[in-house]
Design brief:
Elements: H1 2-6, H2 22-29, E1 34-38, H3 45-50, E2 56-60, H4 69-74, E3 78-80, H5 87-102, H6 105-114, E4 134-138, H7 142-153, E5 157-161, H8 170-176, E6 179-182, H9 196-201, E7 207-210, H10 219-227, E8 233-236, H11 247-250, E9 255-257, H12 266-284
Parallel strand pairs: 1-2, 2-3, 4-5, 4-6, 6-7, 7-8, 8-9
Helix pairs in contact: 5-7
Bound molecules: (2R)-2,3-dihydroxypropanoic acid (DGY).
Length: 294
């Protein structure tokens, strides 16, 4: 990505885990034509106002809830994201989480590492088989559909809710599914889409998977539901206040916790970075952006 950019423009790089502070980002955008942002960068009104010369903000991620798109558009700044190329990696990882939580992989691994495994036993860490179970997919876009195709290969039946096509009502999906997987973007409408009432509607034997954005689930409500055995388990890749994880979730055996790895394959992350660079170059050279946000 950097080589591609350096061939086309002057590049200032900011590195380090956890990203830049907001203050540093505000200072850095002054006088720049383009910004390549990560999903951990809050590109809010203050950043956009400080970047008076910005022509494009290229987010490395399909989600762009970290960007004030309306403020950018009001200033004629193009905003781009990286759809499609991370669909397979994220759908694969959703299946990894689904298998991990239903087959109690985390519990088993912790048992071995503690030195508590004393050999095979007929009734040890029994889990739930996916075949024949219903997967409820909330949000039936690219990633939701890719998860459905994978789950069908495991013998699952699929139910979905969607803004675009019929699907089934959310209440019915929650009360009939054995696994519920979230694939809606984070918007004001989807914040805390899954809270106490929704969790209470799920089967006591059901599992909840989240690979989209943490705030789609009310994390405190989820911890409450798990502690009170209202659902059987959860597997999370994303959290309300990353990198913080709700303290009550940390001690629960029936929860699988991953550090936002959905798209984390070398191939996918390389393609995401490259697409962001190509979006910047397109806009700066007067071409239409490849993947503007809708
Ligand atoms: C995205 O692209 O929005 C992902 O969360 C990054 O892995």
């Amino acid at each position: 990505m950097v080589a591609r950019l350096e061939a086309a423009c002057d590049v200032e790089r900011f590195e380090g885990d956890g990203g830049m502070t907001h203050e540093a980002l505000v200072a850095a955008v002054a006088g720049k034509d383009a910004l390549i942002s990560l999903i951990t960068d809050s590109v809010d009104r203050a950043v956009i106002e400080a970047g008076a010369g910005l022509r494009v903000i290229a987010n490395v991620g399909v989600g762009y809830n970290n960007i004030d798109v309306a403020a950018a558009r009001a200033r004629g700044i193009v905003v781009t994201n990286t759809p499609d190329i991370l669909t397979d990696a994220t759908a694969d990882f959703t299946m990894a989480l689904m298998l991990a939580v239903t087959r109690r992989l985390g519990e088993g691994e912790r048992m071995i590492r503690r030195g508590d495994w004393h050999g095979w036993a007929l009734d040890q860490l029994l889990g739930m088989q996916l075949g024949g179970r219903q997967l409820g997919i909330i949000g039936f876009g690219r990633i939701g559909r890719a998860v459905a195709a994978r789950a069908a290969a495991f013998g699952m039946t699929i139910a979905h809710t969607s803004r675009r096509d019929a699907g089934i009502p959310l209440d019915r999906l929650l009360s009939t599914s054995d696994v519920v997987s979230l694939h809606v973007p984070l918007t004001p409408e989807t914040r805390h889409l899954i809270g106490q009432p929704e969790l209470a509607r799920m089967k006591r034997t059901a599992y909840l998977i989240n690979t989209t954005r943490g705030p789609v689930i009310d994390e405190a409500a989820l911890a409450w539901a798990l502690k009170n055995r209202l659902i059987a388990g959860a597997a999370l890749d994303v959290y309300e206040r990353e990198p913080e994880v709700h303290a009550d979730l940390m001690g629960l055996e029936q929860v699988v916790l991953a550090p936002h790895l959905g798209s984390a394959t070398t191939e996918t992350r390389t393609a995401m970075a490259d697409l962001a660079a190509r979006n910047v170059i397109a806009v700066l050279t007067g071409e239409p952006p490849l993947t503007p946000v809708p």
